[in-house]
Amino acid sequence: MNKPEDIIAKYGFYSAPVHGTSMYPLLIDHKDSVYITFPTKLKKYDVVLFRRNTNQLVLHRILKIKGSKVTMCGDNEFQKEVIDKSQIIGKMSEFSHNNKITKVTSLKFNLYSRFFCLSFPTKKFLFSIIRIHNRFKRKFNPK
């Protein structure tokens, strides 16, 4: 009964801390958490929890839906992945980032989602700029 799909079926939601960096900078490893609900009305830009064929749980963003096939990618990744809708366990409805809860229906989240999806072709360049910025920030603003 510890599987997310069983918990969602019983309680209607699943909440867990984020592990991994595929959704960075939206979600930070071991710092942020997500609230996952039943995957109704899937659409482009939704962030969903799915189970790969290897049994690994993954949280990625939907880039495209065509029939039963869903093209996914993490915000911090460059490789698209096609899965079957049946592999989707749930849809993120809100998340906690820097101890602040954000609903996926918020304007800020929706603008962020569209920006990351539209910037997919230039993502490597944008991430290089972000990494350089963060290095300078850490170097000149030590805590």
Description:
This protein is of the alpha+beta class. The chain has one domain: Umud Fragment, subunit A (Ribbon). The protein is built from 3 helices and 8 strands; from the N terminus they run αββββββββαα. It has helices at about 5-10, 105-120, 125-140; strands at about 15, 35, 45-50, 55-65, 70-75, 80-85, 90-95, 100-105. Strands 1, 2, 3, 4, 5, 6, 7 and 8 form an 8-stranded antiparallel beta sheet that branches. Strand 7 (about 90-95) and strand 8 form a beta hairpin. It is globular and about 50 Å long. The termini are far apart.
Describe the protein's topology.
Blueprint: H1 4-11, E1 13-17, E2 33-37, E3 47-51, E4 57-66, E5 69-73, E6 81-84, E7 88-97, E8 100-103, H2 107-118, H3 123-140
Antiparallel strand pairs: 1-2, 2-7, 3-4, 3-7, 4-5, 5-6, 7-8
Largest sheet features: 8 strands, antiparallel
CATH homologous superfamily title? Umud Fragment, subunit A
Overall tally of structural domains = 1
**Can you give the helix content as a percent range?**
25-40%
Counting DSSP E segments of at least 2 residues, the number of strands comes to: 8
Radius of gyration equals 16 Å
State the distance separating the first and last CA atoms: 42 Å
Query: Structural class of the secondary structure composition?
Result: alpha+beta
CATH architecture: Ribbon
The third-level CATH topology is Umud Fragment, subunit A
Mean pLDDT: 89
The CATH class is: Mainly Beta
Helix count equals 3
List low-pLDDT spans.
none
| Range of strand content | 25-35%
SSE pattern: HEEEEEEEEHH
Structural shape:
globular
Organism: Ruminococcus bovis
Protein name: Peptidase S24/S26A/S26B/S26C domain-containing protein
